[in-house]
Amino acid sequence: MENHMSYQAPSDSATLASARSTPPEKEGTWKDFITVTKPGIIRSNLIAAFAGFWLASRWDIQFGLMIMTLLGTVLVMASSCVFNNYFDRDLDMKMERTRNRSLPTGRLTPKVVLWYAVILGAVGLAVLFIFSGVLAGVFGLVGMFVYVVIYTLWLKRTSTWSTSVGAISGAMPPVIGYVAVSGTVDMGAILLFAMLFLWQPPHFWALGIRRVEDYRAAGFPLLPVVKGIKRTKYQMIPYLVLLVPLPVLMYKYGYAGMFFLVISLLLSLVWLYLALKGFRAKDDAAWSKKVFLFSINYLTLSLFVLVLNTVH
User: Fold this and answer.
1) For a tag on the chain, would you pick the N or C end, based on fewer CB atoms within 10 A?
2) Burial class (CB in 10 A: 0-12, 13-18, 19+), 156
3) Average pLDDT along the chain, 312 residues, taken 10 residues at a time
4) Mind listing the domains of the chain with CATH numbers?
């Protein structure tokens, strides 16, 4: 993938000015403060953080540590997502999928959202550093920095590399959970990071293909927009191929049992098969929707089975 610093969004200044001058239909509610944290992202990453904690614990759970680690992780993730919404508020006005969010509609003001993000982040990092250990806090800080600064403020607006580099932040939650127990970065932490890192680009590119015109209108240099859908399909394959041996390595290094090996390996192969079918798909929108939904089920089932089949 290449950097495309010259890629510019279509001019929509009149639309943005009109949107800013239009008063909100209603004031923000507690629901807006929840939705601005992107609960769907938090939910999936919370499951990943729990799986990392459980894997390192090997069924010997310190429940107090687990609660504080998950709380700190949730707050850090929520802060990152709120920062993302804050910095993307103008671009969100251009996308059909995002124009009704709390900031573009004016239900929440930028100043309130910015302070909300700062407070969530400060409290979340404090919880991790104090209760979960320095290593967990450091990984929480790295995740925030990559997502907010490198992904949101820089690469998302300038380069097709945004998805791959941004995947680093999405792979932090299971590592945070793992090191809170282990206190070290060993093979278990590395394999968890690899699993979440490799999962994200093909997952997000499937959504990008399905919503390619929406992203094009907003001016995001996403891979399907800049390089085309066929190139994006090719780009998905290496990530999915590298996912295949991960269940084998989890089993080989004694972290998970045979049940996880079989189920997760099968899911990985099915996802790879669905991706390869995309080269013969006549309807890219229908194909990408199917792959996107399968990717969500892949992660949920793999993590669920990993927890159940963690080796004592």
Assistant:
1) C
2) buried
3) 39 42 60 90 94 96 97 98 90 72 84 95 98 98 97 93 95 98 97 98 96 86 95 98 98 97 98 97 96 96 96 88
4) 13-308 (1.10.600)
